[in-house]
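From the thread on structure requests for the teaching lab: each student submitted one protein with a one-line request. Submission from student K.M.:

"Model Ribonuclease P protein component from Vagococcus entomophilus, tokens only."
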Amino acid sequence: MRKSYRIKKEQEFQKIIQTRQSFANRNFVVYIMKKNVQPHFRVGISVGKKVGNAVRRNRVKRQIRQALFELKEDISSEYNFVVIARPAVIHLNTREVKQNIRHVLKLAKVMNK
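Reply posted by the TA:
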């Protein structure tokens, strides 16, 4: 996923989280914020230390980015969102991560289809 799709600044993370529109399943929490004019969605990824050491956290982040890359055609372009991984995510493979991301985004009504 290109860098233009990513949210990196702490202020942007906090702004989205403070909207308090959150949706969750067992493995992920998603905070969303609607933006009207932008060419594509933007996403911030947060994986805390409870998930594991740096190697495991980076693996989870790569899996989340890959899942979002594969789903990007179905995700509405008018949203910015933050994905927070819960500790149970370390037991999932890439396919299961994608299924869980799709599920939580459908709960948030961010998916087009």
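TA comment: The domain at 3-107 is CATH 3.30.230.10 (Ribosomal Protein S5; domain 2). The chain has a mean pLDDT of 91.
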